[in-house]
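Form 7-S
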Amino acid sequence: MNDTVTRYIATWNATDAQERDELIRRGWAEDCVYVDPMAEVSGRAAVAATIAAVQAQFPGFVFSQVGEADAHHQQMRFQWGLGPAGEEPIVIGFDVLVLDADGLIRDVRGFLDRVPS
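Output:
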């Protein structure tokens, strides 16, 4: 569980497109779905584009895990923060990941708890 969350956060922090694509290829199902209040996409390429768009919107910011993850069956939930490295996160969110039988991310449902005005 912790490895999955660590790899998930690393994927969102990968600013090099090749590195990000490799992390997605190794950690996400081909037919993955990602849904949050700002996006609803399916497939690895669309997830990569979504991550790149978030990085462009918040240049220099990094994602970090906030608190402990909780899991049962093939799903887990955890809170994350987005902000300048080493500082208090400006954005706080909550994601639920559902894994497929191979342990790849199949479905992500994201929520935004705190967003700057």
